[in-house]
Specification:
- The structure is a single chain.
- The protein is of the alpha/beta class.
- It has two domains: about 60 residues, no CATH class; about 170 residues, 3-Layer(aba) Sandwich (Rossmann fold).
- It has twelve helices and five strands.
- A five-stranded parallel β-sheet has the order 2-3-4-1-5.
- Helix 9 links the parallel strand 3 and strand 4.
- Helix 2 runs antiparallel to helix 3, helix 7 packs across helix 9 and helix 9 runs parallel beside helix 11.
- The longest helix is centred in the first third of the chain and has 28 residues.
- The termini are far apart.
- Bound molecules: adenosine-5'-diphosphate and magnesium ion.
- The site of magnesium ion has 5 residues, from helix 6 and strand 3.
Length: about 260
Amino acid sequence: MSKDSSYQRVRSHLAYLGLRTASERLAPALEAAEQDKPAYADFLDLLLGAEVEATEDRRLQRRLRLAGFPHQKTLEQFDFSAQPGLDRSLIKELATLRFVEERSNVLLIGPPGVGKTMLAVALARRAVESGQRGYYTTAADLVARTSKAAAEGRWQNTMRFWAGPGVLVVDELGYLPLPGEAASHFFQVVSRRYESGSIILTTNRGIAEWGDIFEDTTVAAAILDRLLHHCTVVSIDGESYRMRGHREKLSQLRAAIAGGGEIR
Ligand code: ADP
Ligand code: MG
């Protein structure tokens, strides 16, 4: 009887402390303990370990939700054979996440379809899985949001927001020009994060063309200066992965027509 009431008391202590998993596991853990007779410390280790695991998982799911990644792909799914020009060891080194610890940047440069977004997001996902906060945005979205914040008198808030994550993915710089105020806002985000958090930036434009993106070589130079000071530059100039499939289909089609064979 007294055993029952202490059981109830422990359950309610655990629930009161917000240790839901431990509270749920208490009964089966006690039952198993009757058999195994573990040391007191081992019993607590088992019970609290389950709670820690559940908490870690909940936090990870929350960080992943907040990161707003556009897809679920991982580095393991990246097909290096499709991109023979890409330096595999460079990606391996980035996958160690040392660049995140060092608060340095990654610049992925290449034409459309070569896997820049996939790699950027997969690296950021890895960082989030390791406990970092991550966030995904496009360059156009970033400047639209900073401009809106500036107009609404929320500049300090928005700067704090962009400075927050350990890894910020800025996708697709260069598809749209970012003149004047947009360039200045972009500069301020880069500047704010300089040596305090990593940026993984993807772009279809070589560094020499950045003056065109920002329509101002001075601000382009200032952005590049901060971005490149601690930076791994990854150039991917192979074939588009999207077009690869089409091209295969197309050549199969041609061969089939020429040879009168079947299309698989
Ligand atoms: P980019 O951002 O360079 O335009 P994406 O990362 O969007 O290219 O890649 C286009 C599509 O092809 C995506 O669905 C991506 O997951 C896939 N992809 C690109 N390269 C590879 C690769 N080497 N292995 C596997 N999938 C790839
Ligand atoms: Mg992309």
